[in-house]
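Lecture 7 notes: from sequence to structure.
We start with the chain below.
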Amino acid sequence: MSINFEELDFRATPIGAVSLRRRRLPGSHEDVYEIKLGDEFLMTSAFTASEIALAEMGLDLCAGENLDVVVGGLGLGYTAQAVLQSERVKSLIVIETLQAVIDWHETGLLPLGAELSGDPRCRFVLKDFFAATVSDEGFDPGQPGRRHDAILVDIDHSPEFLLNPANAAFYQPESLRRFTRRLNPGGVFALWSNDRPDAGFVRTLEAVFSDVEAREVTFFNPLQQADFTQTVYLAW
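Predicted structure tokens for the same chain:
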């Protein structure tokens, strides 16, 4: 197999085949890591600005110190890494539904794996994020019903473009109202989207939260050789 492309792992999962690939961009000496679900790209390390912004924007709205944070969706780990850059963070639970993704980090197959696994504040939890929002246990198996200062989510492509149709209920007002019981008073909910801001979803958030923003994150996409805009929704 060419050194310019390598499939590092491939596994069947309940939501489809997931694969981890490493390749070189033309004219570059940098390795790019990609996660695919079937034929869909879930994430690439070629551009991570919005994944990092998800963490930074969410934490900027949190008051105080000793923050307890949840990240929904581990992926390549860039949101979790950005959370751990903050000295105000006391604990981080990363919820991931695919054992393969956790394994890639814990075995060092991904570049950020050792850093995340080695930080005593960080814990990976194998769980369906959306099921956890409505369960009595919540996100922390060791502390049922625990509340958090920030919950940062990067799972679906957008509130309209879902990886699993079963996730749709989460983005409705009734489910989001139940979801708020996972947040401490004044806690922040932040959501990544691959699309530009959706006015309809902003209105949905405004029906549940006191303050809502949809912030655009624009960056240069080397794969398309053009600027690309994604969104971070913030609600508190």
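Points to note: The two ends are 49 Å apart (CA to CA). The CA atoms of residues 148 and 183 lie 5 Å apart.
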